[in-house]
What does this fold into?
Amino acid sequence: MTNEADNTNKGEGMEGVKILLRQGPFSREETGYKRFVLTLVKLLCVLVEYGSLLFVTDCSSLIFTIFAMRSAIVILALLIAVGAVPLPQEPLQAGVIPVLQRTEVRDEAGQFSLSYLSGDGTTLNEQGALKPTADGTDNVLVKQGSFSYTSPEGIPISLSYVADELGFRPEGAHLPVAPAVPPINF
It folds into this structure.
């Protein structure tokens, strides 16, 4: 007998849903997103009613809750998007930094010399030459040089380097230095 009473109550609740769908804002054929929302509302009304989670006769409060939640989600997404926008940093200097002086010399033997000075004080000096490998079958480029500039914090940076068969070896006051290894006594 309990099952028959449950079936009777379930049929009565659907009448309210049918009336809402015939007379309410969803009475005409909807397409796209509105149709998708309508389908979700219908499904939720049926699940709520037949699942005995809540007795709904017209689904109007459920529809209002769904649209209120959708609005809350949109507002939350907008707040997250606004919070994710990076704050403006110091304004960048407009314009191109001019090259005040540039010298480049190359020869057929593979030797070169390059230097320049830019308008912001950046300098570069580099020399290079081809050097035969140990077995004499090929050549490698050996370079040495230096460059200097001013960091964004206003600190002058200067670096000199050698790049040869032993690798790239930079030197500069701003580079970290490993502590000296103490001698091992046997």
